[in-house]
Amino acid sequence: MRLDPELVAKAEAVRALLAEGLEALAPLGVETAPLRQALMDLEGPFLLVVAGEFNSGKSSLLNALLGAPLLREGVTPTTDKIQLIAYGEGTEALGEDLVLVRFPHELLKTLRFVDTPGTNAVIRRHQALTEAFLPRADLILFTTSADRPYAESERRFLELIRSWGKKVVLVVNKADLLNEAEKEEVRAFVLEKARETLGLVPPVFLVSARTGEGLAELEAKIREVLRHEAARLKLSSPLGVLQRLLEEGQDRLSAERERLLAEAERCRTLDALLKRHLRQTQEEFAGRKARLAQVFAEIEERGERWFKEHVRLGRILDLLNASRVQKSFESEVIRDAEERLVLELTDALAWIGRRERDLLASALDLIKTARPVEAAEEGDLKARLQEALARFSPEAEAAFVQGRVEAALKATALAEAGAVGLGALIALLLHGLAADVTGLTAGLAAAILGLSVLPRRREAALRAFKRRLAAIREELEAALEKALAEELEKSAERFRVLYRPDCERIQGALEALEAKVERLRALDDEAKRLRANLEDG
Ligand SMILES: Nc1nc2c(ncn2[C@@H]2O[C@H](COP(=O)(O)OP(=O)(O)OP(=O)(O)O)[C@@H](O)[C@H]2O)c(=O)[nH]1
Ligand SMILES: [Mg+2]
Question: What fold is seen in the domain 5-254+527-536?
Answer without folding.
Answer: Rossmann fold (3.40.50)
